[in-house]
Amino acid sequence: MQTLSSLLHPYPVEKFLAENWQKQAIVISQPNKQKFQHLFSWKQLNYLLNFHQLTSPKIRFSLDGKSLPETPGENWLKNFQKGATLIINLIHELVPELAEFAAAIHSEIGHKTQINLYCSPPEQQGFDCHYDTHEVFILQIYGTKEWYIFSDTIKYPLSENRSDEQLPPDEPPYIKTVLNPGDLLYIPRGHWHYALSLDQPSLHLTLGIDCHTGIDFLNWLFDELLNQSEWRENLPIINNNNTNELQVKVEDLINNLISYTKNEDLSQKYADYLTSITPSVAKYSLPFQAGFGIFDRGFDTQFIRPKYQQVRIEHINEQEYNITFNNQKVTLKGVTLELVENIFNRDKFSLFDLATWAPDLDLEAEAVPLLTKLVMAGIIFVETDS
């Protein structure tokens, strides 16, 4: 967990997972005020505002604890000057450094990640006291902000459990702290909180981790059961409130479900499913994915795996494998397990390497089409100098 360890440093990952994760907020301060400035800066914010066509809900504003109506670009500056907090949602989709950071955390913990940006004028409160339905890490980049953290009132809330429909706890905050540049604050989902910027503008990133839950597993299981006709069949008619046949049918379905869960390796199937839907940081590599220029360097052509890409290899028949990644599936035929493992267990290899691993593979008739297929599918990229 190299990236998570670096994020939490000097607080040990093991201690964080045992004592804080899902349980207790924590502030991690350190003297390095530039710790997070490689991820984002005022310069990058201005670039996004000046040269990207940002629209709602990607960009929005909040004032006096309430979200403002959708605002045209010519009024953004006026909003900020009036004291509104500027929010850019899913900013990792716009900034490569943040995309890689979010993907690295995802690969280490196996749960969905996203990053939002918050830019607050001095002495302002962006939002009323609320809780989030995902785990939250606050990375303070510039300025200072005072945070108030309260205990939860509902354990492990889901998106259906909205905080604006409930009251915060009637007790003092268990954390009251000022975040300085380089400081990190972790807030478990469900823990109420609010923040005030102090005497200068504040810029911070929020890393949200939307964890898979038992409810997500049941939703996946529901989709699996849709493939079985007995679960799509009509339930018995209820005649004059006589529910005997209905009860018998429901008991049959319950027994069917018990049998299905015992006979199927559902835990492995669900784990494989989660791996298969993990998105890649980079999806495009032109002109190579259009089939052009792939082998311009001949045997010196270098192939690389997209960073943090997760693949699942499934053996179908002799010398036939399914490669599942990013919710896609590619079938490879006429290849050995050794060759498949060499391709997918390395970050980088050349055409010459592949010829060495599989000397019996015909270069023009088999090796080149195989690599072309993988490149065009986006499973491997051609390395370039620029």
UniProtKB/TrEMBL annotation:
Keywords: Iron, Metal-binding. Its cofactor is Fe(2+). The keyword Metal-binding applies. The keyword Iron applies. Residues 84-226 form the JmjC domain. It comes from the Bacteria. One of its GO terms (molecular function) is metal ion binding. Gene3D superfamilies: Cupin. SMART domains: JmjC (SM00558). It holds the Pfam family JmjC_2. This is JmjC domain-containing protein.
